[in-house]
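call fold(seq) -> tokens
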Amino acid sequence: MRDRRRLATPWHSVVSCVIAVGFVGALASFAGATPQEPPALQFDVASVKPRAIDIATPASFDIGSDGLTAINYPLWALISAAYGMPETRLEKLPSWARTERFDVRAKAPRPASRAEMLEMLRALLSDRFTLKTHRESRVSDVYLLTRVGTTALGPGLRPIVIDCDNNTLSPSSAPGVFPPDERPKCGTNLVEYRSGTARTRHAGVTLAHFATSLAGSLGRPVIDRTGLAGIFDIELSYKEERALAFVSERARAAAEADAGPSIRDALKEQLGLTVTSGRESVDFLVVDSIDRPTAD
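ret:
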């Protein structure tokens, strides 16, 4: 466990400060003061521990108002969450960062929003994994998520009215996917694998958020073009090759037969949505450097 309050300022913060002073110092001296940027948000206390491969323990990622906990979580997924970038748009990531898993427990210095927690997670990745990245935009093959004609929404796509700050549905809202006393926070994606089936449930998300989550299963970026605004609970079950990877060879044939529809068919049947090919400018996150974490 590392207590941020007892550490010296990280080297990258020092470099940023020196650059800022060197660049504006001459001009600022005429004004009689040196402008200072607000310090980056950082966790007060953070623990990062490598974890042996553990298929039996579900991976979990939870952001509360006072901190963040990730259990049995792959590093690529932490980077994806921190930067809001799906796995298919992470580039130059070493193979170990895609396979090795970690337990991360971090406490914020004060109650914070989800956006502030993700800012602190980026600082943690920079400090503990020496992660440096940059973004690049380029025209790429994509899928466009659209409605199937003008048909009604599928049974798994449920509009809701919700106060995400309090995580409570409005009295006028439809019930959504989750029981009121078991509702995850807005933006939560829950994935369950059984044999060859992936069952995904999304709590309080926009369709832009949902489209982004489809990239891993469809193999390219997905962009929302449904024209549907608002917040949704979404439930989708489909055959997932990554789920079949955990099935023995003996059981694979039976699992494939029972795994359910393809993701394209499931989108149509369960949500009333479809995907079509296109080409658009897309952002990618390029990893410039990364190392295994420093010890607690």
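The two ends are 5 Å apart (CA to CA).
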